[in-house]
Design a protein that fits this description.
Layout: H1 11-19, H2 23-32, E1 43-48, E2 51-57, E3 62-67, H3 76-89, E4 93-98, H4 99-104, H5 106-121
Parallel strand pairs: 3-4
Antiparallel strand pairs: 1-2, 2-3
Length: 126
């Protein structure tokens, strides 16, 4: 099997993204780090092949993406679609949220993440 996770070639890209997280990502990271949701360990700025996802849990192959303003520029939605199709072809489930969702309904976003974790583990959420 080819090594596609956290490739050394993507290390500087991951570090740069971690050091320059947008505000919406910082908010989510503060709520999911340290196994705060369903005792699930997330990593931030995790690479899968040449793509870096915002948050990832290897246990469940779950990626969480936060779509900021840059995701609505010309050509980016198509790129995101192709990128997500590649990630899903490698067995990764991708859940996307917008900055607006983070700012306006953080509790709802966190609840959705919790639900997806439970679904992937095959358990009924409490």
């Amino acid at each position: 099997m080819t090594h596609i996770y956290n490739k050394t070639s993507e290390k500087s890209k991951r570090q740069q993204l971690r050091n320059n997280m947008p505000p919406a990502e910082r908010i989510v990271w503060a709520k999911i780090r340290g196994q705060q949701i369903e005792d699930c360990k997330f990593r931030r700025q995790y690479s899968i092949d040449a793509f870096v996802v915002d948050f990832y849990t290897p246990e469940l192959k779950l990626a969480i993406e936060i779509d900021g303003e840059s995701h609505y520029q010309d050509g980016i939605p198509e790129y995101d679609y192709e990128r997500q199709a590649f990630l899903e072809s490698k067995g990764t489930k991708v859940v996307r949220f917008t900055n607006q969702e983070i700012y306006q309904d953080l509790d709802g976003v966190l609840e959705r993440i919790r639900q997806v974790i439970c679904e992937l583990r095959g358990i009924t959420p409490p």
